[in-house]
């Protein structure tokens, strides 16, 4: 009989976020180049709300798309992580993926406290895991 999946620790989460962060930065750079071109080659003014919303939308499409369709991003795949529903371990739908993304923004906005919470949480869950009813589990190695 197989044992239940193990919830990911903070190090593995952060390592996957670094991988995905690099991919997101590349996407944001491409989008910025396109937006600057549409702005007649002029820089986007700092704090421009439309630009910030575009970057947030790109992050949402990237992360939620992977979570919804594959259960994991490329960074999560490299670190053998999968996002599942906490109640039954099933795949995460689009609604939960979007809820998790919005809740993760709170974890970031609090200077990372939402992520650090997983160090003291009895189930090793971050704020956005609790708020969205999801969890990151470690995929066992193939033998």
UniProtKB/TrEMBL annotation:
Keywords: Cell membrane, Membrane, Transmembrane, Transmembrane helix
UniProt entry tagged with the keyword Membrane: yes
Transmembrane segments: 21-38, 50-71, 92-117
This protein's GO CC annotations: plasma membrane
Domain called RDD: residue spans: 8-133
Primary location: membrane
InterPro entries associated with the record: Pra-immunoreactive, RDD
Pfam families named in the record: RDD
Membrane topology: Multi-pass membrane protein
Keyword Ligase tagged: no
Locations listed in the record: Cell membrane
Name this protein carries in UniProt: RDD domain-containing protein
Organism: wastewater metagenome
């Amino acid at each position: 009989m197989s044992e239940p999946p193990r919830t990911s620790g903070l190090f593995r989460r952060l390592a996957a976020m670094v991988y995905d962060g690099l991919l997101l930065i590349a996407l944001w750079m491409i989008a910025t180049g396109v937006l600057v071109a549409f702005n007649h080659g002029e820089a986007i003014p700092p704090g421009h709300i439309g630009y910030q919303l575009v970057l947030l939308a790109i992050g949402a499409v990237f992360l939620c798309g992977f979570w919804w369709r594959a259960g994991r991003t490329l960074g999560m795949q490299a670190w053998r992580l999968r996002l599942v529903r906490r109640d039954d371990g099933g795949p995460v739908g689009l609604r939960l993926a979007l809820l998790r993304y919005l809740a993760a923004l709170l974890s970031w906005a609090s200077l990372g406290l939402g992520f650090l919470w997983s160090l003291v949480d009895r189930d090793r869950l971050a704020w956005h895991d609790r708020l969205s009813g999801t969890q990151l589990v470690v995929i066992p190695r193939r033998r």
